[in-house]
């Protein structure tokens, strides 16, 4: 297969995924041209800090959507977990890690509660989490006595606002950040190379070598450039490390683990999965527990970023997370979608919000634009599917 | 049919009621290794109910199930699976969003100590399996939604063989297929017999049945209504199905 054929094959085969990549690059380019500050080190750092919690939520939401459900309660869970943590740390003066652990414990409990109703009582996730949205918002008000709590300060504040900087020195450009990004790039290259070797060993088709190398070089260049921008600003944000770890772990869980395979199977054809011996109820239960966990992580990050807990925190986060999944290629009927796609979908939302803010677009207009983008992304998905079925 | 040999699977006096409806009344059935037994009958004769009893999906109200001469119970599909019974139901139990390999191994994935899927190994086995059954698909990584009806049926049959079963139950495998794809599926069934399995084939189509079956068992109103050799005439079998000239009802 020569390079051109290979390229065309890759594009048509992954139309949905590559379409979203192209859209992402186009949106970034659009804002970069309109506003020179958009790609500045400070602003890139800001984007990471501002939207990390949406991306964390989108990981769990993706798994729920793939399994054929939806979770409307995550915004309330973000608020509740942050509130519990704030009460312990701020009001009762406990150490920061007690707050973090308590928040995660609450998240797991909430997840188990919702998972129980969905999996073992058989109520659709939409209803259970709609109830949860009210329930956990109400509990947040109770926990906080209708008042905000702040500030966390100290180590807790650093979770979302801290940077690793100057560990290895450097003049204006943090060497440590660059080293970490270098390791990430090399790791990515090695794993891609090994996957390719494996595919060849099992006689699968792979893209031609020049195309493969070009792809690697482009990815490496973009990642290193991004790392350099961060390094010349404030260094490596702690949140980015948390996010990267979650993306890698959940990438493995969804694509390479038995559990992940079963999530896709249940979303594709619940009946078939059941007959094949997949424990459907267990899958439903655990995806909601997992969502509770990730919502609590997002709750910690968000309360840390806000340096306090408010009763109305996390309002509408669920919609941002759901939109990220659908823009990133998840199917409304379940069974289709990837963590990577949801991350790009979330980044598209993030870049648009941030870009429009820099340009001074009013909030009302931002909402209009984001709504249209969501609609167009799903319309493209449906059109693409129809086209594929005509080809067959 | 083959005296002196213990049947692989023997059903004795199986009865099953759904409320007041008698779906099965005292049904007997023997299946041996290297044998294709066709189960025929009119709509509502109890074929699919019997298949579901064998697959462990339904439990009989009374009667005895023996494997290799020893009584067994089949309380669930996975229990039947463990005892070596694999089934393909009328409504294809496949996930259209997953690829061929993932479907073949669904519910029995191979994984390493870290809990990660062993894709390479599963692919190798899938490829060998499809070769044994002479199934042709574009690629073992093709999602099922891109395959034709016949190819999907072939994948469904292939996935039954993964757990090293001894009995395969096929419920109307050719119902929705074109002539060419039907011929392919019949070839797959002969391959299963060649591998030494006992095959229970449920079908409406007497032509298909007579093409591959070693023995034809007729059900009528939930009761046994005749047993024929695979080369029995169309008319003989049809008479038993419709009850024409039959003393039983």
Description:
- The complex is a heterodimer of chains A (392) and B (249).
- With 392 residues, chain A is an all-alpha fold.
- Chain A has 16 helices and 2 strands.
- The relative contact order of chain A is 0.19.
- Chain B has a domain at 9-97 and 165-242: P-loop containing nucleotide triphosphate hydrolases (Rossmann fold, 3-Layer(aba) Sandwich), CATH 3.40.50.
- Chain B contains 8 helices and 10 strands.
- A 6-stranded mixed sheet of chain B has the order 6-7-8-3-9-10, sandwiched between helices. In chain B, strands 2-1-4-5 form a 4-stranded antiparallel sheet, with helices on one face.
- The mean pLDDT of chain B is 85.
- The chains are: A mainly alpha (392), B alpha/beta (249).
- Chains A and B meet through α11 and α12 of A and α2 and α4 of B.
- Chain A: Part of the binding-protein-dependent transport system for D-xylose. Probably responsible for the translocation of the substrate across the membrane.
- Chain A: It comes from Xylanimonas oleitrophica.
- Chain A: The chain crosses the membrane at residues 20-38, 44-65, 72-90, 96-113, 120-143, 163-188, 209-228, 234-253, 283-302.
- Chain A: GO terms for molecular function: transmembrane transporter activity.
Span from first to last CA of chain B?
25 Å
Low-confidence blocks of residues of chain B: none
| CATH domain fold name of the domain at 9-97 and 165-242 in chain B | Rossmann fold
Largest interface: A-B, 28 and 31 residues
Structural class of chain A: mainly alpha
End-to-end CA span of chain A: 23 Å
The CATH class of the largest domain in chain A: Mainly Alpha
Question: Topology of this structure?
Answer:
The complex is a heterodimer of chains A (392) and B (249).
Chain A: H1 3-13, H2 15-34, H3 41-66, H4 74-91, H5 96-121, H6 125-144, H7 154-161, E1 163-164, H8 175-201, H9 209-232, E2 236-237, H10 238-256, H11 258-268, H12 270-275, H13 280-306, H14 317-327, H15 339-358, H16 363-391
Antiparallel strand pairs in A: 1-2
Chain B: E1 9-18, E2 21-31, E3 35-40, H1 47-55, E4 62-67, E5 70-72, H2 77-82, E6 85-88, H3 100-104, H4 119-132, H5 149-160, E7 167-171, H6 179-194, E8 198-202, H7 206-212, E9 215-220, E10 223-229, H8 234-242
Parallel strand pairs in B: 3-8, 3-9, 6-7, 7-8
Antiparallel strand pairs in B: 1-2, 1-4, 4-5, 9-10
